[in-house]
């Protein structure tokens, strides 16, 4: 008899203690769906906000709720109506809109999958969707061109580490706000590191020559206002963390939803394959240690991504 697959669930809003890893019924793919056995799945700050109920008005949970969007794995079943390009055994990168990827088996719309290139690690593949498409959208939103100077807050975080690399590929001069611990990594990726905290405005002005053309805010907490003080036009500021400031000042708030497609995943995976993009993996946790994984994430000091492995 086959054992029941395991999945993360929570049955009410709350802190880390509401997260449970439980046995669930084996998912059955419907028309147009693929069942994927997960090899790796990233975790993201938005999942914390949803689980705590802070996004109830925008993204209400239906209990018991699963969680997670990012995934990479192996096709286990293919339902009717799926393109013959997907077969059992295919290695894929993808995403789900059903808050379900933190599990051993996940149903995925066939159109939300792309092939995993052979030299893209399972961990990087499984952590790619949310951070990768968000970074892609933020860089596109601020319309970078060669000779621009762009500042990225939270430059060592999950989204920031990818945004700074994609921005540099556009030919822009990138200033990355991060702790000194991460300055070496940023410099190795062609970024000018700048320490955050008190005096950051003066440090940015000194390094940029008092010219900042664009600003990508991945952290929140006043960076939109900082960008405006630096003289950045509102249409060239994008925040994925301070939606109140975006509404107040008329700046952009484009993120994952603006680039959520298999086509963008394919493009990003190809850059990883050719070593033109790195997804730094901070730590990998077994699925059963999901609370520990989020405990680390919530400290907001991790460079790159944290990944769950079923």
Description:
- By secondary structure, the chain is of the alpha/beta class.
- The protein folds into two domains: 6-128 and 279-309, Medium-chain alcohol dehydrogenases, catalytic domain (Quinone Oxidoreductase, Chain A, domain 1), CATH 3.90.180; 131-257, Rossmann fold (3-Layer(aba) Sandwich), CATH 3.40.50.
- It contains ten helices and 14 strands.
- The chain has helices spanning 45-52, 122-126, 129-141, 160-169, 183-188, 200-208, 223-229, 243-249, 262-273, 290-297; strands at residues 6-9, 20-23, 33-42, 70-78, 91-95, 105-109, 113-115, 149-153, 173-178, 192-195, 214-217, 237-239, 281-286, 305-309.
- Strands 3, 4, 5, 6, 7, 13 and 14 form a seven-stranded mixed beta sheet that branches. It has a five-stranded parallel beta sheet with strand order 10-9-8-11-12, sandwiched between helices. It has a two-stranded antiparallel sheet with strand order 1-2.
- Strand 11 (214-217), helix 7 (223-229) and strand 12 (237-239) form a beta-alpha-beta unit.
- The longest helix has 13 residues, at 129-141.
- The protein starts with 5 loop residues before the first strand and ends with a strand.
């Amino acid at each position: 008899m086959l054992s029941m697959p395991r999945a993360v669930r929570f049955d009410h809003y709350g802190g880390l203690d509401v997260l449970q890893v439980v046995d669930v019924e084996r998912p059955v793919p419907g028309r147009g769906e693929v069942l994927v056995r997960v090899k790796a799945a990233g975790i993201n700050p938005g999942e914390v906000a949803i689980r705590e109920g802070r996004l109830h008005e925008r993204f209400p949970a239906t209990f018991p709720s699963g969680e997670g969007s990012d995934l990479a794995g192996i096709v286990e079943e293919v339902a009717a109506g799926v393109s013959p390009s997907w077969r059992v055994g295919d290695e894929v990168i993808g995403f789900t809109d059903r808050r379900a990827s933190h599990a051993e088996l996940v149903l995925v719309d066939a159109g939300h999958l792309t092939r995993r290139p052979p030299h893209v690690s399972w961990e990087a593949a499984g952590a790619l969707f949310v951070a990768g498409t968000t970074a892609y959208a933020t860089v596109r939103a601020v319309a970078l061109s060669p000779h621009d100077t762009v500042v990225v807050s939270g430059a060592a975080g999950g989204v920031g580490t990818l945004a700074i690399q994609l921005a540099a590929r556009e030919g822009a001069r990138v200033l990355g706000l991060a702790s000194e611990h991460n300055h070496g990594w940023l410099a190795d990726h062609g970024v000018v590191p700048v320490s955050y905290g008190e005096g950051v405005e003066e440090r940015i002005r000194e390094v940029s020559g008092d010219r900042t053309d664009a600003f990508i805010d991945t952290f929140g907490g006043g960076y939109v206002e900082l960008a405006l003080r630096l003289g950045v036009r509102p249409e060239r500021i994008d925040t994925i963390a301070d939606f109140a400031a975006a509404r107040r000042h008329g700046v952009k708030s484009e993120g994952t939803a603006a680039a959520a497609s298999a086509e963008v995943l394919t493009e990003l995976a190809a850059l990883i394959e050719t070593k033109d993009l790195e997804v730094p993996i901070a730590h990998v946790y077994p699925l059963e240690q999901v609370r520990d994984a989020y405990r680390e994430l919530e400290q907001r000091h991790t460079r790159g991504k944290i990944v769950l492995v079923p």
